[in-house]
Specification:
Elements: E1 3-5, E2 11-17, E3 20-27, H1 30-45, H2 50-55, H3 58-69, H4 75-85, H5 90-93, H6 102-111, H7 116-135, H8 163-170, H9 176-188, H10 192-197, E4 203-204, E5 207-210, E6 212-213, E7 221-222, E8 229-232, H11 235-245, H12 265-272, H13 274-277, H14 285-296, H15 301-308, H16 313-317, H17 325-340, H18 342-354
Helix pairs in contact: 3-4, 4-7, 8-9, 9-11, 9-14
Domain Tyr recombinase: 156-332
Protein name: Tyrosine-type recombinase/integrase
Organism: Brachybacterium rhamnosum
């Protein structure tokens, strides 16, 4: 047995490969130490042991999952996962992690008395947890996959709102800083955290250097997917942005709240009466406006992906639905071909008539 009782009364589990200890962890209960040791052995062997899923509760597995997440993902992501997973009902948390079914996960999500958006975020945490459970050998499938949330948005982030719409919205905002913040976000597609972290020194030569993000309520960190990028500033806002920064030092933030400090989305929405001037748009939709307009303008998807900081081209492809951009381009090709055949015949006939 590779579980020892320490002088402190806790239990230390060790997993060896040959004569070498390759993994170790300490627990308050011997039962948890044994379960972890068994799971580690299965993981190292690359296999699956159904006994693990039956002997380990969801609550015990969640505690290990959250511990593993520390340092691997953003602290804000761990905090959100902890909030949702630690709030699981007793009927779920005490169930064996290997026996929870898709129907039970679906029932739990549907019974939550929260918005559709919050349900979707809870489902993301559950899916991440069960994905981890599969990799650790607790089960062979992810029961959170395929669960649908009532009132879910379509599977693309494109919006029919345009830069002209945003300009009309911005014209109704009295505070010049907030007004420029809304316009710059709509033309550059930066995320709210990236807008808060943007420094004057990051703006040069008509481009933004996006290196950091500052989520609300959390420390500043690298940008999402750790993909630093450059984003061009459209001429429509470049002059106003440069004038806005003209008397600021390179280390100062480009955008701050009217009284100084970081911009809080809730305060911005309240101060500009967002629900009145833009009832059909979320503040985050300004990012979608930028990406959608780039696609409408015919910017290559690979370039759009780089500017937006998307993790993959498949994410960017969700925006090709806007205004039938692909259909318009395809129709131009068809019309061009028609002009060579049928269209050219009509032209020739008309010329003969004139003669």
């Amino acid at each position: 047995m590779s579980v020892d009782k320490l002088p402190s009364g806790r239990f230390r589990a060790r997993v060896k490969r040959g004569r070498h200890v390759v993994s170790t962890k300490t627990f308050d209960r011997k039962k948890d130490a044994l379960a972890w040791e068994a799971a580690e052995r299965v993981r190292l062997a690359g296999g699956f042991d159904p006994r693990l899923g039956k002997s380990t509760t969801v609550a015990a597995a969640v505690a290990e999952f959250l511990s593993d997440r520390e340092g691997r993902v953003a602290a804000s992501t761990v905090a959100t996962d902890r909030r949702f997973l630690n709030a699981l009902p007793v009927s779920v948390s005490r169930s064996p992690v290997g026996e929870l079914t898709h129907a039970e996960v679906e029932r739990y999500i549907h019974r939550l008395r929260v918005s559709a958006g919050t349900k979707r975020r809870a489902l993301i945490s559950l899916s991440a947890f069960f994905g981890w459970a599969v990799r650790r050998g607790f089960r062979t499938d992810n029961p959170a996959k395929g669960v649908k949330v009532a009132g879910e948005a379509p599977n693309h982030a494109a919006t029919m709102a345009t830069w002209d719409d945003v300009e009309m919205i911005a014209a109704q905002i009295n505070d010049p800083g907030y007004r420029l913040y809304v316009r710059v976000m709509a033309y550059t597609g930066l995320r709210p955290g990236e807008m808060r972290a943007l420094r004057v020194g990051d703006v040069s030569g008509g481009r933004l250097r996006v290196l950091r993000s500052h989520p609300e309520g959390h420390p500043e960190k690298d940008v999402k997917n750790h993909q630093a990028r450059f984003v061009p500033v459209a001429a429509a806002v470049r002059g106003d942005l440069e004038q806005h920064m003209s008397e600021r030092s390179p280390r100062e933030r480009v955008f701050t709240a009217p009284g100084g400090g970081l911009i809080a989305s809730r305060n911005l929405r309240r101060d500009v009466r967002w629900s009145v001037i833009a009832p059909e748009l979320r503040l985050y939709d300004l990012r979608h406006v930028a990406v959608s307009e780039w696609v409408r303008a015919g910017v290559p998807l690979a370039t759009v992906r780089t500017w937006a900081g998307h993790s993959s081209l498949s994410v960017t492809s969700r925006y090709t639905h806007v205004a039938g951009s692909e259909d318009v381009a395809a129709l131009e090709l068809v019309n061009g071909r028609a002009g060579v055949t049928r269209g050219s015949q009509a032209t020739q006939g008309s010329q003969e008539t004139v003669r």
